[in-house]
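U., I forgot to send this yesterday:
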Amino acid sequence: MTDLVDLEPAAARITTLLRDLRDDRLEAPTPADIPVADLLAHLVMLSEAFRVAATKDADVGPPPDEPPALDPRWRALLPQRLEQLVAAWRQPDAQEGETSAGGLRMPAAEAAVVALDELVLHGWDLARATGQPYEPDPRDVATVLGFTESFGSPEGTPGLFGPAVPVPDDAPAFDRALGFSGRDPAWRAPAPTGR
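Result:
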């Protein structure tokens, strides 16, 4: 039996990033090739989808091709959704049996890993896009590295990761995870332009 995934450290890091996120950064680019506002809308949506996966309620199906507009209440809504997500996955039977998320059926324990991967990678995306520090939990990094390495490829994995970015074998574990996910660990947001 493997250790159960705890989403709290990754979710808490995202909530911390939101505190210093200025509205003028919502249109800034991210390493995920979408603006910050779209990334936040994606996080709101995926938090609910994976909460439903934990409770094994009816899956709402695949995500839309285009991200929904960011809810104007996102500053309160996203932390609330993240808290609900963490609480749902901490229930004793959440990581047992099978569940469905985004229209894909999988073992619940794997769905928890996918949720963790989403939170950790998108937390980094958000931090880089807004010029904030980001240090993921080492246990989360080990889990995410294993996941990204199993799916990362030079061609990418449609709907999951872009083409892997070459990273040295002796690079830090999180840099390698980012590379497998199609992200360049050296990515930096462009400097804001003056008025």
